[in-house]
Known about the structure:
Layout: H1 13-20, H2 22-29, E1 39-43, H3 50-57, E2 61-65, E3 75-77, H4 83-91, E4 96-101, E5 107-109, E6 112-115, E7 118-121, E8 125-129, H5 136-140, E9 144-147, H6 154-161
Antiparallel strand pairs: 1-4, 2-3, 2-4, 5-8, 6-7, 8-9
Amino acid sequence: MDLVGIPQTSCGSYQAALTFNKRDLISVLKPYGIKTAVNYFLDKGDEVDVEEIIKKVGLPCFIKANKAGSSFGVSKVKTAEDVEQAVKVALKEDDEVIIESFLDGTEVSVGVIMYKGKILALPVTEIVSENEFFDYEAKYLGKSEEITPARITKEQTKKSTGSF
């Protein structure tokens, strides 16, 4: 739509492609000092060294397909015994796997728009999943509540919206 000049409400094609590949996105964010979960990458055919994975990311952790969106191939892993099965689940969706440390806290979402030539952050929305994490059911089948404005402090709101 960008190429043919049709106004739309989603991000540009580069940003969409970048955010769909978690490994690439992390490599772009790091030089800017943007914090991410501790991560460990596997490709199809790699040895799954459970001890090394847990040493790096800890437990619980999330194991997910690197390039599958919408929470396909995602598992929250709480024990070492569940790591290999979760990797198999992720590999059904993609040939690359990302394993990330668990981050405990309030989940929020912040929309950003371009309006009259200025980038503006929309109000912060808190996401409360009925499930253990914000999985496919929570995102798309109504198993979550979205609260705007988020129930966070003014300082947290400022950090969430950056310099917009």
